[in-house]
Amino acid sequence: MNAAWTIAVKDLKQRVRDRSALIVGIVAPLALAAIFSFVFNPIDDFEFSAQYVVVDQDGGPAARLFVDQVLGGMTGDGTIEVEELATVEEARTLVDVEVKPFAEEVESADAAFIIPPGFSAGVASSDPVSMEVMAGRGDQTAAGVAVAIAEQFASQLQTARVSTATAEFYGLTGDRAEIGLRALAVPNLAAVTDAEATSKILTGTTFYAAGLAIFFLFFTVQFGVNGLLEERHAGTLPRLLAAPLPKLAIIVGKGITAAVLGLVSMAVLVIATTLMFGAEWGNPLGVALLILAGIFAAIGIMGIVGAFAKTAEQAAVFSSIIAVVLGFLGGTFFPVGQAGGILAKLRFITPHAWFMQGLGDLQGGNVADVVPAVLALVLFGVVCGTLAALGVRRGMTV
Amino acid sequence: MAQPTLDCRGLRKVFGDLVAVDDVGFHIDAGETYGLLGPNGAGKTTSISMISGLLKRDGGSITVDGEEMTTINLAAKALIGLVPQDIAVYPDLTARENLVFFGKLYGMSGKALQSRVDEVLEIIGLADRAGDRSDDFSGGMKRRLNIGIGLLHKPNLLILDEPTVGVDPQSRNAILESVEQLSSAGMAVLYTTHYMEEAERLCDRVGIIDHGVIKAEGTRRELVQMVGEHDRIRLETTSGGLQSAVAALSELPSVVEAGAGDGLIELLVTEAGEHLTKILSIVTEAGVAVAGVDIDEPNLESVFLHLTGRALRD
Ligand SMILES: Nc1ncnc2c1ncn2[C@@H]1O[C@H](COP(=O)(O)OP(=O)(O)O)[C@@H](O)[C@H]1O
Ligand SMILES: [Mg+2]
Minimal Cα–Cα distance from A398 to chain B, Å? Predict the structure, then answer.
């Protein structure tokens, strides 16, 4: 495969010289990331709404405080609706409702708060207490907010405990101090069970950095995969075909070029958006796996276009259309997944959505969480790449 | 010669309804230059594409130094240097980078590659422009680079497909000279052209191709004789006695036809150059004073016309 490297090195030299890859791969996405990050940050403009359910199996004062004061206080302006249910089963049913593509609006919940029996007693005693948050399958932001609400309540309890304890320490007496005294002995404060929801949200800046990076990646790899059409255009394809090297070496050479361009572009974007805009991509290993798999998928898909297009111009037009459609559908410009409904599901026919999903999963801090997204991306790469290679080989003649 | 460098027989290529190449066969020995002469669309490039393994053939056989050529036989491909009809160089690479890149694809490397690149740059007259990007080159310089890439790896068979199309006379001459040198250095050369002068100057043997078929093949002289063409000699005279001179000339075996009138003697002869002295002395003996001689040797153009009823260039 020496010849493949020779071809890739030659291609890269050409790409460096004509600078177009540099602009598409690095300058354009960075410039847009800067604009999005500083000017719009539109993720904040997103109209937020959430449907929560709560099951109070405890019924004690601490539980009622949470249901009536905390949750009740949020329902004022209609963005958050809370319904109290009698059983966990009812809550689970609503939370588990699949939001199917093309389906009518169904009754569902974005998250369920389950307050177990003995919660209030636990707060007032030395027993550890916990509250469960079940994340729904629909709007991930709403689920994330639910977790945040529970966490907020936990820290309020903590504050209350510490202050009553302090009051007691200084010799104050009365009900509050009595509760506080017992509370002080509680080793575990109200713990929140994270039911998968927190791991799925990218912050505004990270969202746009990642979205732009994967969006432009599809344009960047084009400079590699359309190399064959360029060879044809330059008249050099007959030379390559006449040279003593297998056709596959030429295809692999173009693939290497695309991969290197994609890798450089993504690496620069990750580092630059982290340093300049404070994007938080997450665990480097997970990010690297997603990027490699993403590049593979991009090469496969753009490779099909390159293989079946007649001219470089035609390929450029088709590639742009496909890259833009997949990019929008995949939610790289606005969070399609959080909008819910049809698009939230349909987006998974794009590698972009898997990439974004993978990065979201990675926010939980666990590298293993990216595995599904990586596998999906690799599958895109294998299927499309094989089709592309077959198409190219057939078309590789004078 | 044990085996020719290139031996192809019965080549055939069909595009849809069009038989682009039909039963084309010829051989080229080492040190020999073979020309395929024919108008645009005759099937020259298609033949060459099959010979250099770019295109699958629909029939026939091709061997290069005994190695059978196919689209996947790399050993056979390594023996050939191809100079495509359309300029095939990377415009954003320098002349040297272009040469080095293709040299590597032919398995060359290191010092050997560098010194061969220098050598080729000299041959194609681009040594002082080696570091310039080829899109800054003139058409002629690009053509020369195009040829340089083809001969870089010292192929046994160099194939040039209309290498002088669209170049200035100076570059054209330089190109023809280097082909002559390569051939005398022992390379077998396959040269296609629709310029009859180039075929006449360069080629030891010429195949005349039209509509995918080789109509005739041989040296220039063989071809001329094959179609029964003769040299034409025209003598301008200043004094009389023309009829007796014509009668005497008609006796010569080399003179096919002789006639006179209007102060001119016109002759058709087999070898004008060889017999001119003899002819002139006969005319002088007959008392005719000659003021001017005009010799018209038939060329491949007239052979083509004779064979196809059409001019080489329409
Ligand atoms: N790939 C192709 N598909 C269809 N027809 C072709 C193709 N290549 C060449 N031809 C046709 O075959 C004939 C011979 O073409 P070509 O070999 O290029 O002629 P030349 O090189 O002598 O000018 C022409 O009529 C041309 O139009
Ligand atoms: Mg041609």
Answer: 7
CATH of the domain spanning A50-185: 3.40.1710
Q: Which of B21, B54, B108 has the highest number of chain A CBs within 10 A, making it the mutation to test binding with A?
A: B54
Query: For residue B80, which residues of chain A lie inside 8 Å, CB to CB?
Result: 242
Backbone angles phi, psi at B2, to 5 degrees: -65, -55
Tokens of A80: 């958050």
Where along chain A do its domains lie? 2-43+201-395, 50-185
Between residues 353 and 372 of chain A, which touch chain B (CB distance below 8 Å)? none
Q: Which of B84, B92, B104 sits opposite A239 (nearest CB)?
A: B84
Q: Which residues contact B23 (CB under 8 A, 6 or more apart)?
A: B10, B11, B12, B60, B213, B214
Ligand nearest to the CA of B42: 1
Other beta carbons less than 10 A from residue A253's beta carbon: 25
What phi, psi does B186 have (nearest 5°)?
110, 0
- The CB density around residue A309, as the number of other CB atoms within 10 Å, is 20
Tell me the whole-structure pTM to 2 decimals.
0.73
A259-306 pLDDT, tens digit per residue, is 999 999 999 999 988 888 888 899 999 999 999 999 999 999 999 998
Query: Taking the CB of residue B103, how many other CB atoms lie within 10 A of it?
Result: 21
Same domain, B244 and B215: no
